[in-house]
Amino acid sequence: MPAGKGVNRVSDAGRQAPDDGVANLDALAAAASGALAAGDGALARERFGQLVARCQRRASRVAYYYVRDVADADEAVQDAFVKAFVKLPAYDTGQPFEAWFTRILVNGCLDRLKARGRRARWMAGSIEPEAPGGTGREAVDHRPGPEAMLLRREQASHLLAAIARLPGRQREVVTLTQLDGRTTAEVGVLTGLSESTVRVHLFRAMKRLRLALRGLADARG
What we know:
Elements: H1 9-14, H2 25-37, H3 41-67, H4 70-87, H5 97-126, H6 138-141, H7 146-165, H8 168-179, H9 184-191, H10 195-220
Helix pairs in contact: 2-3, 3-4, 3-5, 4-5, 5-7, 7-10, 8-10, 9-10
């Protein structure tokens, strides 16, 4: 080998255009991770920026499904990208980047929902408008459909909590199939599982979720 040809091989490869060897998400993630390991922060940010561009739209869909608020979804996505970049040195290049990033994103969304629930409970217990000469309940009671709104929120919160309690693989499969609309074949590629194994995880997860929602209905009578 001519002198100098083998120097910075990883870095040189990482600097190729995406169509010249870094054509998919996993390769981009590996290039960004390798650049960080080599101390090339500029290249790592460049490659990770390409990952962000490719994942942004899908990540926004998943986040919005969870938090149901555009601003919150945008913040959740940005936070997830930041966390993913920070954790990039620990990323296992043998697993699909998309599945790895989705777990970070979903966990962040669930954390936001828990925080939102805590704030809502605090406000409900601490801030109650008082009508002149009344007990403070009249101003609340006149709102349209409060019981129906509460039931919908409770059901959504219960479902998300049930998803969060699923075993890791089941939660991942539900997220990718039911929230992101992936086929079981696509999920198999993303997770490295056979399609039949994906179907088993999905069946078991949906059974758990149905039982959870049935339990909520029974509790309400």
